[in-house]
Amino acid sequence: MLIEPLVLVSIPDTINRSILSKILMIRNRYQVALGIELYISNFQKTAKKILSLKRVLNKHEIPFAFYLNELKEDDLNELISLNNIKPEYIAIQGLASGNSQDYISLCEATANILSGIGRQDTELVIKNSIYPNTGILSLDLLRISREAKCGVMVDTEALLHSINMIRKWSRLNKAAPSNKKERECYERYGFFVREGKILCPLRSLKDLTLEAQLSQMKAERYHISGSNTAITDRSIIEQSEIKDAPFHRYLVSRVMSMKPKSITVKSCTQKGIHNLDIAFRSAKTLFEHLNKKQIQEVIE
Asked: 131-140, 179-188, 215-224, 288-297: which has the minimum mean pLDDT?
């Protein structure tokens, strides 16, 4: 049985023999088209490795995609223009902001940059992130997506963190938009920014749920990891393993209900370094979840 959707493992920079052997082992065990999503933190450093990496991946028929953790127009254009790369997709996140006025203008700037990129048949998706990056919840992410004519990727970990923080800050502040810019931000995106915090009126919190956000975004591509996170500055720096636990089964089920094209598993340590052992264990657990689900669908 060929498991769907496509599952990818997030890895930094490039792959070595150990990573390649793990990919092939898992692929053979589960009979899946397991791929990699290359996490690019320094494009100019990584660009030199991409063509040789592609030859290795093509030899073993391993699908691949790219994730740029910082939106830079020149880097994105150069990546897309590399000869015959043809990734599954290229994912990026939005520009960083500081307050309500900046947030609106930078959402627009993010859309303008993406709309000006020459796609060359490359699927470009914008991933939700955590504040101060733009593209936090469904309304702002979808607006950027529409204006930029690109797809959407949902990072469930970042989304859960944003929902929890907005709920916490809004209850503590009991805030409502107090000036023109805050009102404009709220009317556009369903939240506003004040003193570095994302806020919304208390009456709006009842509709701020993971289920509602996923239903509104209707994304075809997802990043998932375990439920525990450590956040510093604007980065998720520690991600736990996906296990055969109630929450993780629920999370996979919710994502699968959206009929995704791809799911990327990832894990970073406290220092922001990829923990590939955890990521590969998470991939195995994800395949077990998907296998059970598809067998159950056949039985029913």
From this structure: 288-297
**Count of domains in the chain?**
1
| Residue with the two structure tokens 């307050």 | 99
Q: Is residue 211 part of a domain?
A: no
pTM: 0.91
Is 256 within a domain?
yes
Query: In this structure, are strands 151-155 and 124-127 parallel, antiparallel, or unpaired?
Result: parallel
3-class state of residue 35 by DSSP: strand
Contacts of 191 by beta carbon, 8 Å cutoff, 6+ apart:
136, 137, 166, 185, 198, 199, 200, 204
pLDDT digits (tens, 9 = 90+) for 74-94: 999 999 888 678 899 999 999
- Domain-embedded: residue 234: yes
Is 267 within a domain?
Answer: yes
The shares of helix, strand and coil residues in the chain, as percent rounded to the nearest 5, are 50, 20, 35
Q: What is the DSSP pairing of strand 235-239 with strand 229-232?
A: antiparallel
Determine the structural domain holding residue 19 and report its residue range.
6-88+220-299
